[in-house]
Here is the input.
Amino acid sequence: MSSWQSDTIQTNGIRLHVTRTGGAKPPLVLAHGYSDDGLCWTPVAEELAMAYDVVMPDARGHGLSDAPDGDYGPLEQAADLAGVIEGLGLQRPIIVGHSMGALTALTLAGRYPALPGAIALEDPPPWWADDCVPPFGEEWQRQTRAWIVGLQQQTVPEIIAAQRAHQPNWPSAEFKPWAAAKLRVHLNSLNRLAPLNINWPALLASVQCPVLLMTAEPALGALVSARQAAALQDSVPQTRIIHFAEAGHSIRRDQFQGYMNVIHRFCATVTASTDLRMVWPMHHEA
Here is the structure.
């Protein structure tokens, strides 16, 4: 990590902070979930940095990026990520996203289809699905605001201790970045998260790149049901689905090595320009 670079990209009227492993290698962008930031990808980036130039942006309202007034929905997040990719001159990077970051990657692939080389989605909010519960209601907003305020009254060691008790099976390396990110997330990040103007069928019809959807167990907190995964595959036929049994919403934290095996395989397949249909069936258990 001592050789990793820190940069700031000016785009959409704000400054976005980026951490980058560097090197003359294929670019790979990691887009974090809500209340995380770029450095929450540290264990993943350390494994990928030998083969890829790994880029870890802090989304607006997170980490060291600006927290403007205004909207924080997937359209804004996708425009920000497009600005980072263009600002750094990345050529068709692979984008791996978790939760909010996965929805950002999917939205970017539909709105800016020439930018990504491929996208891998770790349990995104399934807003494309007809049966998706309307997101981010008043009660969710209230609870999330109270959660963040409560965390920001604690120290990093206190947050780590509580999360370690809650998630005893996470790798030890996950806790410090997760806790530190909670102290940096801005309450503006709760502003207008759910857009009313996304035409999901039209957006998904514009996705051209290979897509990997990683799903887990709704009973353990995962967001995407089997039906919702199938709906995405119907709309984006080049989607391949990998299901992680006995994992929840943070698949990589629940099953790190299995997750990394899938990511290595996906990235190698894309980099080699191999047709995913020849490598993976439509649906596969990790």
Observations:
- The beta strands are 5-11, 14-20, 27-31, 53-57, 94-98, 118-122, 211-215, 239-243, 283-285.
- The chain has eleven helices and nine strands.
- The mean pLDDT is 93.
- Residues 256-271 form the longest helix (16 residues).
